[in-house]
Amino acid sequence: MTDPAIAFAVGRHEDPAIEVRVNFGVFAGRAATPAEIDRLAEWLLDEVGTVTIVSEERHEIGGAVEASVHLVRIEISPEQVPAADGDRRTLEERLVERADHWARQCIADRHNDTADL
Q: Alpha-carbon dihedral of residues 17, 43, 96, 13, nearest 10 degrees?
């Protein structure tokens, strides 16, 4: 029996047709909760049939700089996006508006004032 791999390389994959990033941690001072991610999904499913939401802590590290931020990434597959550029932009704008509203509501509900921003 082979042990499952802890680390592994991933082959190339198709990029999402639309990607929206929410700079959640900078403004909330904390990570988004699973319940908040579920609420965001509900709001987005009115616009698209399926969505991928990634909640991640990113570390950008270099010789003279180090930063850690909590991001929420919304990915929409090409199958969910209209072919016409104008319709695509309209969908993208609506997704950004909903994500912005969601983040502001989450921050108003529960903000971590003691977080190291």
A: -20
Domains observed in the chain: 18-109 (3.30.70)
Cβ burial, residue 81 (10 Å; 0-12/13-18/19+): middle
Residue-wise pLDDT tens digits, 93-113: 999 999 999 999 999 988 765
- Give, as one character, the DSSP assignment of residue 29: S
Q: What is the pLDDT, as a whole number, of residue 5? A: 87
Residue 44 backbone class (left: φ over 0; alpha: ψ -120 to 50; beta: rest): alpha
Task: Please identify every stretch of the chain with a pLDDT value under 70, giving residue numbers as ranges.
Answer: 112-117
Residue 14 tokens, joined: 């198709």
Residue written as tokens 């969601």? 102
pTM: 0.82
Residue type, 47: E
Per-residue pLDDT, 80:
93
DSSP letter at 63 equals S
